[in-house]
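Pasting two entries for a bug report.
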Amino acid sequence: MSLPPGFLEELQSRLSLSQVVGRKVIWDMRKSNQAKGDMWAPCPFHQEKTASFHVDDRKGFYYCFGCHAKGDAISFVRETENVDFIEAVRLLAAEAGMTMPERDPQAQAKADRRTQMTEVMEQAVKYFGLQLRAGAGATARDYLRGRGLDEATQARFDLGFAPDGWQGLWDHLTAKGVAPEMIVACGLAKESSKGGKPYDTFRNRIMFPIRDARGRCIAFGGRAMDPDDPAKYLNSPETELFDKSRTLYNHGPAREAAGKGRPLIVAEGYMDVIALVAAGFEAAVAPLGTAVTEHQVEMLWRISPEPVIALDGDTAGLRAAYRVVDLALPLLEAGKSLRFALMPEGKDPDDLLRSDGPGAVQALIERALPMVQVLWQRETAGRNFDSPERRAALDKVLRDRIKLIRDPSIRGHYGQAIKDLRWQLFNPRRSHTPRARGGKWPPSETARASTKSSMLVASGQDSETHLREAVILAALISCPAVLDQFEVGIERLECCDPVHARLRDLILRHAPAGVETLRARIVEAMGEEPLEKLLALPHVAITPPVRHPGDADLAERTLEEELNKLSAQRGLRAELSEASADMAGLADEAVTWRLGQAAEARNRAVRSQQEDRAEYDLGENGARIRRQEKQRFEALLGTITFSKPKR
């Protein structure tokens, strides 16, 4: 079966050789340079331990310095899959989303036609260039100079001008023997609806040739000189040469510059790209008047693993950024992502270069935001999350977005990143907990005033609460998988002890990563001593989750029990605190009623403690503390006569 000459070329341009080869090898990332498409691995064709197999992703070839195997994507598939040439092409075409051509005796004729079309397009490039330098292009030249584009830059991009006439280019090309049908097929002219002679597609416009990755002109973009023209920018219609969803402006030169280590910048339009290149940012490209497409994202990743999307600093620019995020989420792969550099409000890259110079653009590129940050900003900017319902809505929409990511590893990392951002938003003071100095942690400020002033707090801290917090923290460290269903309760732990407060914060941030990672992060942040001391406490060591780490059922029951008891204690403290304030003035029947209710709640908690004493024995010291607390409580209440308030 013969293939059209252009088919293999298109196939090679759509595929990344490193992706094709990567299914069969494990890259040596210490030796590889992914940004430059320079990849190394042990050879798949002979046994070796060193990485002597080299893939040049930009040139599309591989070579082994050990066994001297070499070739392209097609030959690699032939050798590794043991298939013939056509079957290898068929496999790669399916991966690239291309349809295998049917047997076509006219294939060569079609290839010849494409060649003829590109020759016609080059004639149009020359015609528009001459018109720019002629008298008719004076206004266009003034405009370009006003935009800071000198003659060298204009020549570099083959800029031109289409005069304000109906058949200027048509007459020029037909006079040179170009068939009328070919001019229309190239998108340079349109058929008249009135039955007259075809007319030029572009009139009174500055012309920007659009070239493919090999540098062949396949289309044009035109900027209107008339400010009242409804279409400020106009692209060629789609033709046999031009598919705008698979084309990037300045593709070939940008690929070459990115190969030399320049950052790949994606701007919105031709003028932005030209201004960026003229200022030294040579790896700049732009989509063609439409939102970035899936095919264009794949093309960008074949040039650079992390392109920077530079968008105008206005509402439309933000919306465009959000559309790109939604498009790219399902396509993400390890090592391939996007970053976003938003220009100052009301400016595009061209404006910023002219007002503040290349340094300002460079600073924005260096501070470009990762995709997860843009995703978070979209869902939180300017919104208030002052109710559980609003927070729940935020959680739901973010979960739905993250589910779009197909790669499970990346999906997990996004989930953790969102969790960290959520923690910072809703716990601003806790998200920057100071580190220990000299082995001591700074005093915590998270205890509420009502807790600090409670008559049940001895020596500044409630010992029983401290014991229960220790059990809760140890249970979560032993089985972090159960955190999700208790997260709200854990966030509300007051933790007067700064060590407990720090452990709580680390658990909330790192529990989803699993027990090993959680423990590693605790040791990294606090050292080994706090964790060892916590788990060695007698009342902690005997609890079921610590004795049976990883048992989710035991951990759930323990956490539910301890959190319920802490809640009952908090209610008692609150009532006592309010009663103390009321008793400073005139005690009334309402006060005694509230104290009576608080006493009953406390008694229920004590009875519950007695029922599970066998399993949750706090030891002799804990029992002594409870007796002292009960005596203090009864002494307070013994001075008051309880009666239900009259109505």
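Entry 2 (this is the one that rendered wrong in the viewer):
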Amino acid sequence: MAKVGTMALDGGDPRLGGHEGEFAGQGIIAYTRPQMRALHDPSIQFEEYWYYSRQTRAEEDAFRAEDAAHASHGILSTIFPTKSGTGNVVTNGEKGEALVPQTNISDPTRRASVTDEEWTNASRAVRTATAGAVFYLITTDILGPFGLPYAFATTGWGPGVALYTVFGFMAGFSGWLLWHIFMGLDSYQYPVKSYGDLAFRLYGQPCRYAFNLLQSIQLLCSVALIIISNGEALSEAVKFKLCYAVCCLVWALAGFFMGQIRTLQKFGWLANAAVWINLLIIFITMGVAAHSSPLYSASASSAGYAVNPNLVTPDSNGNYPPLQHSAGLPDPSNFGASVNGLMQAVYAYGGAMIFVEFMSEMRYPRDFIKGMWGAQLFIYVCYMLYGLFMYAYQAQYLQTPSYLGIAPYAWQTVGNVLAMVSALIAAALYGNIGVKVLYNNIAVEFFRAPPLTQTKAKWIWVAIIPIYWSIAFVVGAAIPDFSGFTAVVSAACILQFTYTFPPFLHLAYNIRKNALRPDEGYDPSTGNIVLHDTGMKRLLRGFMAGDWYLNVWNVIYCLGSLATCGLGLWAAIENLILIYAVPQLNAYGCTSPLDVSS
């Protein structure tokens, strides 16, 4: 296990001294069978993960070559993902249906009776998602295109296009880094189930805890934000005739049912629908914006007001300033407003936070890269065109979300209703991953809960989902202007998972991988790990061997990302200070924050 301390590679195999992990003192040699190891055993080193990952990748490639149905779908499997799959389970060495162990393999005392085939089948059985499902899951997961026009209105034509392009490409590059690490650390014997598992295998247990905590906070906040924002949208759609607290509670209750979908493959069709709904909202908003004026009455919440109130303040006769476009920053003196606007664009690439969870449920993780780049290209082209179009027609009067900035109330309501459905699907996805992170890292590890493939676990899932959504509702409802608070959390979490952590993890992975010589590695017959040198010498060789330029770039990229995250935090906190200078409403009352007449 490559912890922070062992990055210097200054030790041999810690298991050679005797019995390790949960089975110490039981007379069982821990390295003989992977299923006899603790779920997160710190004594397992990189070389063992690497050995089993190559076996798994070779097996997956063999399965894929035999999977005629998968190969024949081609592009259609991406556009119309199948509803479900059986995973790569095997029986008597041949691919097909197989029983996974029905004993609770989370309990170390019961894993001794599990055969090697049953152990690997338990891992294979949950891997059913396809590249097509991943394409739609990624494009559903992102925060949507409806904040991007606002971003262009606060940054201008040039900076907006340049920054959105750079961040889009780097988000794809980060996805490639995560995929590369996953392919070298995941296996049927030691499956990677979450982002935190990568951190654990490269930097140790404290790093895993930190990653899981940040990811859990962000996912819970994302679900809470959608509950509150959908509540606001519903209150506006019914013209504030329904109590605001009830409007929010409706979506929490809807999550009780939507959250019962457990596998990501089954989410494929819902994600498919969400993408087409978003495209429909885009086309409607563009059409209406091209044939009507902006919603001048809401100028106090527009991008122009955030940049410089004079840009949207009417004169003494009640006439609003004409549309104003900017090649550069609209107001260089208000840099914070531009950074806040830019964050709206950057968050559209926030899906990397759950890329690892997507890969962990894929039948062929090698296909992830195809689905990921396809999704990133779709996000970039469609959303860029939409943002530029809306900026051209509404300029400084753009709202976030953009469909609320069109003047005809009927079309605002159409956008609201469609967006509520799409957002609920996205919230269900966030909740799905959030519950799995908590279940696998708390319930399974500390309370020996059964894996989610077993019947008992399915009933536990049914019970956990309402609890998770209830907590999200309570948290979101209790904090006034929750969207402002979430901006701070997003800057601290989403940007890290997309831009800072991937190069940070890949640097450690590349050093360990490149330092391996042909006659070094893990010997499964003895459990020994053969290394001919240790310490700083090995660390430097791993850094400079092979694609050393990628290691250099990872260092620069990680530091640059940290600086960007710092800027985002500063801008979000400054904005929050301004917001809370005025008393804010929470979602425990009946008055909607959008009801200006109250």
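Dev reply: Rendering is fixed now. As a check, the viewer should reflect this: The first strand starts at residue 90 and ends at 91.
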